[in-house]
Every structure is written in structure tokens, then in C-alpha cells.
Specification:
This protein is of the alpha/beta class. Helices cover 39% and strands 15% of the residues. The protein has a domain at 4-208 and 240-266 and 301-307: 3-Layer(aba) Sandwich (Rossmann fold).
Length: 347
């Protein structure tokens, strides 16, 4: 197993990166040791899914529990063989085709990761179908299951930076169709949780990141390429994707009817200006800024999750060092900007 605190910034390969993102914590091993039944991950082919599925496999094996870890996706961009090699059973399925969903095997535990964000301002109907209609299809199919479903901190809307981020019981004020469709997703899950008695957790994730993707990667690559940094969205939260994976799996310990809600993000309110100054120093690049720093941002208060799951293993400063080194060496990017700087909710 990796000891992250001893790694410094020596992540040299994607294989090493994926190993670290997939490493289960002791808490994950304990949770999956208690959890009964198979685990199905819907939308497994996305940015987080492959390493989360592998973490679930490794944790189950470490706990001595024999279970199927089943990954479901269209696999339009490939990746099926790599997951199968990790001991994860793959099923190719278009979740919007209800006849295909009906053929999926039952699973005692379902982790829902499907959704649409990028390109929502160009394809609003598909956004609403994926984010608000699909959860009903899944709940009707898996009404006998326990569920953990990903949502987003965007449902809160912009909050005061001084307040330190939105809390789980705050009023929801989504900005833009993406965020509104995600609130629709939550409401549909809540309806079916109450109607069918489905125990459930809703995870409001606020920017998971690693070395190939995330807000920090967006900023580092812009600086490396000599681009101007817009300071209008002056603050953000982020969390190491491996820690987000771990918290999502441990959430099965907290399922409830109606759904229990948890913010998953890092403990820090990060300054765009300060982070860029760190990157500039590490990568020996000049900085150019534009825009006025607003006193509101898309921020989430992580306190509830930190109290339950503990502090993230990888701190923001460590991640900045890794990303600076990765970008400077020409490391691979997923080429999927987060568009975190959007203040009008258009993605």
C-alpha cells in the first residue's frame, strides 16, 4: 500500500496515480466488511468510477468478503477491459433505455454516478433527462436496494465566502439549468426513497480532483500555457478524488429514509489567487490576472463529513505540488475543464 505522506511529488505514471486513487482506507475496509450483498456502480466509466470500483474491490477483498462488484455504463470511450482485469464485472448498458435497465441483475447495494454536466448549455433536454428523469427509472428498478447517489454542491448556489460554505440544511438556490436539474435529481430520489422505503444517501460533491482533472489542474494548465486567470470566482473547494471515493463508499453506513445528505469536499476554502501564486512559483511561470474577486462563490461546508470520516489523506498543498510537477512534465490530461469559474450556472 502507498503511504501518501512519504510520496512527495514523485507520481511518475498513470499506473501509480490510479493505484493511489484506488487505495482503500481502513474505514472503507470496515464499511465493506459490514455491508451485505453485491455492489453495482451505475455510470462507472466516468472520471471517478473506475478508481472507485477498484477501491470497492480491494476493500472487499481485504475485508474477506466475497461479493460481486458490478460496473454499468455504455463504455463509449472504452475502458471496459481495464476494469475487468481488476476483478470488476462489467455490463454494457444505456441507462436511458428502460428495457436495458430492466435486464440488469438485482444488487443489494447501488451506487449511482450517472449524470450530465458538460455541454448542458447546448443540450438542455438531455441534461434534464439524465439528471432528473433517470433517477426515477433507477429507483423503480432497484426499489429493494440500498443506494448512495452522487449530487453536487451546485444546488446551493453562490454563498458568502466569509460564511465558509453552504451547509447540508441550508436552503437550496440553484443557478442555471445544470444546477436546477441536479436539484430535480435529488427531489426524484427523495420521492422514491419515501414512496418505496429505499434507504439512501445523497452526496453533494464539490470538485473532486486528481492530476489529470479538476479545478487545480485547470489553473495549473492555464498558468503553464501563459493564459490569463479570471479572478471573478475567487474561491473554491476541492478534494482528492481518492478521498472522495472513500467517503462515497463509507456513506453506505449512513443510509436512511428519507435520504441522508452529506457534503463531500475538502476542509479548506481555497483562494484562486493564492493557489495560482503557488503554481507560478513551483512551475517558474509569470502570472496574469483579470476580473474582480467577488465575495460569493460556490462553496460547501465539509464539517459533517470530516467529523464522520476524518480528514482527507491528501491535503490541498500536496495536491498543488503533485499537479505542478505533473503538468510541467507533460503529464496526461483528461481535457475536461471543470468550468468552475462560471457564475451564471452555464456549463
Amino acid at each position: 500500500m502507498f503511504e501518501a505522506q512519504k510520496l512527495g511529488h514523485v507520481l511518475q505514471s498513470e499506473e501509480q496515480l490510479d493505484d493511489l486513487l484506488s487505495e482503500p482506507t481502513a474505514g472503507v475496509i470496515e464499511t465493506l466488511g459490514r455491508l451485505q450483498g453485491d455492489l453495482m456502480i451505475l455510470g462507472v466509466a466516468g472520471k471517478m468510477g473506475p478508481t472507485l470500483a477498484r477501491m470497492a474491490r480491494l476493500a472487499s477483498d481485504a475485508a474477506g468478503v466475497r461479493r460481486r462488484i458490478i460496473g454499468v455504463a455504455r463504455f463509449s470511450a472504452g475502458g471496459q477491459a481495464a476494469l475487468e482485469a481488476q476483478g470488476i464485472e462489467m455490463i454494457r448498458c444505456d441507462l436511458l433505455q428502460e428495457d436495458e435497465v430492466a435486464k440488469l441483475p438485482e444488487a443489494a447495494n447501488v451506487l449511482f454516478m450517472a449524470g450530465m454536466k458538460f455541454g448542458t448549455s447546448l443540450n438542455e433536454p438531455t441534461t434534464w433527462v439524465m439528471n432528473s428523469y433517470l433517477p426515477g427509472v433507477i429507483c423503480r428498478k432497484f426499489r429493494q436496494s440500498r443506494m448512495v447517489a452522487f449530487s453536487t454542491g451546485n444546488v446551493y448556489g453562490l454563498t458568502s465566502v466569509k460564511r465558509g460554505g453552504a451547509r447540508e440544511d441550508d436552503p437550496l438556490q440553484p443557478v442555471g439549468e445544470y444546477a436546477m436539474s441536479c436539484l430535480g435529481r435529488e427531489r426524484v430520489f427523495e420521492y422514491f426513497s419515501r414512496s418505496f422505503g429505499i434507504p439512501m444517501v445523497l452526496i453533494r460533491l464539490n470538485y473532486a480532483g486528481e492530476l489529470r482533472y479538476g479545478v487545480l489542474v485547470d489553473l495549473a494548465r492555464r498558468i503553464w500555457n501563459g493564459e490569463t486567470i479570471d479572478l471573478s470566482m475567487a474561491y473554491f473547494n476541492t478534494i482528492w478524488q481518492g478521498d472522495a471515493n472513500a467517503m462515497a463508499l463509507r456513506a453506505f453506513d449512513h443510509i436512511a429514509v428519507p435520504p441522508w445528505v452529506i457534503n463531500v469536499t475538502g476542509p479548506e476554502t481555497l483562494s484562486v489567487r493564492r493557489v495560482c501564486e503557488q503554481f507560478g512559483q513551483l512551475m517558474h511561470r509569470p502570472l496574469r490576472f483579470t476580473g474582480i474577486e467577488a465575495d460569493t462563490a460556490l462553496l460547501s461546508d465539509a464539517q459533517r463529513g470530516l467529523e464522520l470520516f476524518g480528514s482527507p489523506r491528501i491535503k490541498a498543498d500536496q495536491l498543488v505540488e503533485w499537479i505542478a510537477d505533473w503538468v510541467a512534465r507533460g503529464g496526461k490530461s483528461l481535457n475536461k475543464p471543470t468550468h468552475f469559474e462560471s457564475r451564471d450556472g452555464r456549463f
